[in-house]
Amino acid sequence: MDTVELTKRPIxxxxxxxxxxxxxxxxxxxxxxKNQCNNNCEYEYVAARAGQINQETQYVLxxxxxxxxxxxxxxxxxxxxxxxNAVEGVTEDVSLKKAWHLMRDRGDVTVPVISADKLVGIIxxxxxxxxxxxxxxxxxxxxxxxxxxxxxxTIDAEVIVGDASGYFESGEVVIATANPDVLEDxxxxxxxxxxxxxxxxxxxxxxMGASCVIVTMGAKIxxxxxxxxxxxxxxxxxxxxxxxxxxxxxxxxMPIGYFxxxxxxxxxxITDKTEGIRAIMKKKRYHDFPVLxxxxxxxxxxxxxxxxxxxxxxxxLVDHNESSQTVDGIDSAEILEIIDHHRIGTLETVxxxxxxxxxxxxTATIIYQMYLEKGIEIPKNIAGLMMSAIISDTLMFHSxxxxxxxxxxxxxxxxxxxxxxxxxxxxxxGAGSSLSDKxxxxxxxxxxxxxxxxxxEFSVGQINSMNSIELEEIREKIEPYIKERMPELPVExxxxxxxxxxxxxTELLCxxxxxxxxxxxxxxxxxxQRIFELKNxxxxxxxxxxxxxxxxxxxxx
Length: 557
Description:
Blueprint: E1 9-14, H1 21-37, E2 43-49, H2 55-63, E3 70-71, H3 96-106, E4 110-115, E5 118-124, H4 125-133, H5 140-143, E6 146-147, H6 148-154, E7 158-161, E8 167-168, E9 173-175, H7 180-183, E10 192-195, H8 199-207, E11 212-215, H9 223-231, E12 235-238, H10 243-249, E13 268-269, H11 274-283, E14 288-292, E15 298-303, H12 304-307, E16 314-318, E17 334-340, E18 354-357, H13 363-374, H14 380-393, H15 404-417, H16 421-433, H17 440-446, E19 448-453, E20 456-465, H18 468-485, E21 493-500, E22 505-511, H19 515-523, E23 532-535, H20 540-552
Parallel strand pairs: 1-2, 1-16, 2-3, 9-10, 10-11, 11-12, 13-14, 16-17, 17-18, 20-21
Antiparallel strand pairs: 4-5, 6-8, 7-12, 14-15, 19-20, 21-22, 22-23
Helix pairs in contact: 1-13, 1-14, 2-16, 13-14, 14-15, 14-16, 17-18, 19-20
């Protein structure tokens, strides 16, 4: 799906697959109308499309300076539809103590570790507990490269001599409780020594090359010891806590980066589908899972519990109500409205929806009526889009689907956008039928719909042109393509309409075992006829499909 910068939750207004001009322009026009009437700051209506834009529609968008709708590959729920926990990340130099207090205060079990907005690891309460239990390793503080700032913060200490910006990187932590003559065998160069107010012990520790001496219980440190420590590059720290407390707390100063999980992290992208997320969660025993955006930046955390509050994508369907024509994943979405002018199809909804279906030539005509009903002024570009949709769907008023309501709407919209209908229609249809540089697949997919009647699955594509020679060239290109592709199509019969707008006739190409039989019965043609040039037939919706439906409803599967 195209990237959309939204601060509100989107409600997508989308037409059918392989969208035509009505499908695209009606989505844009209805989205504008809904946003003008919208008093709910939580939602925003977004025009969308379920397929690629054809040449005719692109010409219309260019003519009226309109951006193409957002492309929806499918409407299955993904990580963006989950109410994520906005767990603030920490840096890997944070101490275990600070991380634990943060998690306790916020009620978090897992915290992401972040560097420059990127996830570098995660730390859990279990990781912190394991770190506390590893008290038998006297070198762990230096192996973790613990900063003196963390140590000072953890034991509420201050530096008397030395630089607090460094790190304890080598040696053991030694508690100096024995006499100085015994300590000489235990203290080594680079060690950190915890001791009390005994002058001789302090002197011995510094003399033996300790890199840091921590004096407990806030004991006064003599000028002589301070000078001696400075001469030996020994950091001298004073803490108000007693030696036992310092010995217990000191390991809590280690950075979480030493204990966090770095490798093989189980993360999800914001575009990952929830079905896949749920399946992975079942295999993992973690409580929380980080979510990353498309540039691998940390977004938030999700858990099994947050999946319970999954928000389905919300849709308004325009210009269709057949399940076979909807955007993929429709069963995972919530349909709010349907605005259409076709026969009532196979689409089912879980709950009641606003359904407006009128026997008009174009969906845009219905939306034009809704503008009038709501008293919303129609901008010039929106008027141009709706006018174009009506011209396209009614084949410039040559289609039997056209009504006087469509003609009146197109005339009024023409006044608003200040574009003359006849001249614009010629250019628009010319742009749409200029298919010389298109592949057979592109032509086939341009306006192609699937239908299901009485258990029979069939599809109908259509190309409109004002040029007989061009239609003949299209037939020579498309006919062998469909023959080759027919076995892989999910239908039993496939039809392709080559419609000449000027002469109001259609050459109907048929593919599939029973396709020609269906055409002959639907239009009462001789049983031997194999080539079908149907005069006065230009509308798929009002002429071809109803004729097919009446026959298929009598066939037995």
